[in-house]
Amino acid sequence: MGEASVATLIPAPAGRRSPQVGKRLQIGAEKPSVTTVDGSPDPLLNHLIAKADKAESGKPDLFQYLEYRTYLTDYVEWRQRENAHFSKRAFSQKYFGSTGILYAVIQGDRDLGPKLRVRCAAALALNDKENEYFELLVQHNQAKADLERNFLFERLSRFRNSKPWVVREIQHKYYEKWYYAVVFSYLGLDKRKGTPKEIAADMVPPLTENQVSEAIALLMELELVKKSERGYALTRNHLVSGGFSGDVALEYNRQIQGLTTDLAKEDITKFKAFSTQVTTVSNESLKAIRKKFMAFQDEMKDIVAKDKGTDKVCTVVFQIIPNSR
């Protein structure tokens, strides 16, 4: 499977599995037993171990989250289920010095600065690896620039047994033509054709055999594709843009807009999903909407990463179009 993403574009899925982090007891696994010097069970210590196991039961797995605010919400709900006397306000007062800070953070009204992140890690009783992931997750969620977000996403992926390859400045010719990324993603399908002629006929809109051959030649030059028994195979399953702007970015997005327009004119039913909403908005709300877009982009990467039996390539476009000054 193959994935390529740039700014707010994710053409295709890629495979990834989340790692087992730390040593945790699995359901049905044999539980450890502590014994005394003479080999007899130690009832007190075994009672404490059983109590600790029960306390961890159902605790949200941090490494499954791509939004730290969602994790905090689920963590608090878990604590409330486990302890009827748990108070969110008292918890916030104890670890953050104010009864309202935790609520403000969860609601998105306040970010976690460096000092609050340290306090939060202590409140959540994170181990070293969890703390490292949480720190990166907070930075990623609060990052403003695509370049920074993609760099941090690359580091986060290492915890999830995923190694996305970042397209740096020298590889930006990968985005010179819209169909380069499409052909790359197509070659990552579980069900794919093998020759340029067959691939061209499978594209929407149709490509020429020369265009597919041109794309494959570039992908091989960039060492993203190699020859295989089935024709061609990917050398990298994950691509994310290192962040770029200027003429390359403008031209790439113009091509995508043109692709959208042409397909709509030909047959609007070919769109798997489309929705348009015109609304009034403030600058603050616009920032919040853009954050939601970026968060969904990460969630989408996670969805397609777990996909199996891939049989199609799609281009997903997120747009905010200003209609007034």
Describe the structure.
This protein is mainly α and 325 residues long. It folds into two domains: 3-14 and 165-305, no CATH class; 43-160, no CATH class. 47% of the residues lie in helices and 6% in strands. The strands form two sheets. Strands 1-5-2 form a three-stranded parallel sheet. It has a two-stranded antiparallel sheet with strand order 3-4. Strand 3 (225-228) and strand 4 form a beta hairpin. Helix 6 packs antiparallel against helix 7, helix 8 crosses helix 10 and helix 9 (196-202) packs across helix 10 (209-221). The longest helix has 23 residues, at 283-305. It is elongated and about 65 Å long. Residues 4-37 and 51-55 have low confidence and may be disordered.
Mean pLDDT: 76
State the end-to-end distance: 43 Å
| Discrete helix count | 12
Radius of gyration: 24 Å
- Provide the low-confidence segments as ranges: 4-37, 51-55
Q: Which percent band covers the strand fraction?
A: 5-15%
For the record, the count of structural domains works out to: 2
- How many DSSP E strands? 5
Instruction: Trace the largest sheet across and list its strands.
Output: 1-5-2
Net shape: elongated
Instruction: Label the structural class.
Output: mainly alpha
SSE topology string: EHHHHHHHEHHHEEEHH
Percent of residues in helices:
40-55%
Major pleated sheet: 3 strands, parallel
